[in-house]
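Deliverable D4.2, example record:
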Amino acid sequence: MSASRRSGATDELGPDEPGESGEPGRSDLLAALLDGMDAALCAFDAEGVVTHWNREAERILGWSAAEAVGRHGFAGWAVRSADAAEVQARLLSAMRAPGRQVHEFALLTKDGGRVLVRTQSAAVRGPDGEPAGVYCAFSEVHAQIDLERSIALSEALFEDAEWGVVLVDADLRPAVVNAHAARALGIGRTSALGRPLGELFAQGVEELEAALTHVLAEGAPPAPAEMWVTLRTAKGGEERRRCWRNAFLPLSSPLAEEPVPLGVGWLFRDITEAKRGEQEAALLRFRTNQLHRAGRAAAECEDPLEAATVHLDFALAGFADHALIDRVAPTAGAGGAVRLVRLAATPAGAPGPCVLTGAAGLPVAYEPGHPALSCVERTGCVRAEAGSVPAELAREWALRRQWPGDAVHALCAVLRSRGRTLGVVTFLRGAARTPFERSDAAYAEDVALRIAAALDLAGER
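Output generated by the structure prediction step:
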């Protein structure tokens, strides 16, 4: 407990006994305040006699209040005799100096150990304004350094960190946002504060909020988590899809007896380009393996047309939902227009292998400007898509082009061999897939080269 002498400075605070109303006396309140402090505190009168000693001072040095109060300085018990005069002079010098004085020196514990402490001391003045003593607050140097490092780290994270740092409160709303995070979110550091995360993200907010809720309830995950999110932009702006590597740290109050969740420290870093590079490399490896496997399987086919369908079957895996092969008819239509005959196609309903369908040799009723006809005319790849239309209109768009009704994205690649155009291979995707891109066109051309070689060989037989 905190103790003080029953005379001198404490007498000026008033009587120790409770008043008539049962309220505690002033010195009792003072003792309670001193014992509740997180810092160790002691006080000396003008002659250097210890007048106050709180529980934290007892915890650090091991000397109880009863053992400390009334001693003259620290000599002979809390400091080495050789250092006692210097320590006493430095502490009592605060009575003659303005403001607070900061010192570091070693004190002795009751069991004979030494503790390096950092002190802040200042004068205590009496009613006449003259120095009446000194109070001294002290803490272990390593604890003070740890605190300063924590503060410095926090300031660095919120100013200079290359990671985005967001403090999210227990209601899953941003409370603090650093400069890097503000740039990544495309907003100002203050405009995000207190807003629901759903207002900042167009997609991916459910996964992020689930992760934050888990951290609040269960603690930090064992490893960083990668998430794809789509950021909201101003009206008319293009939404940005990004991949972030996220780390989550639960924040609890160090002042509460029981852990009280203050929120979550959310750190993230944009790895979109690296992730896309990994995905592209993995996709390229897969497609290269498919071409290799298709070549080996086609080499075992006696019929070149069967080899063409084998190449198409292997190309479909992970690439498209449907595919078909049209060959150029031997005779042109009216006005010398190109006519195409359906040679092979995958089933329009359930998935299945590509089958030959061109026994009748009837031209396909493609309307002028059809992507397959344009592909023959340009001798290059042609992409087409239904666009953002209702499902019924998308189905009409596909059927009008003689494609399965669920097709919304198309990619046509020309079949050429020995300088001649032999036909067109068409790959189709449903609404669940993304549109064809340039990298898809390059792969379709590789497949078309192999199919064209097989068709050319079939024409020679």
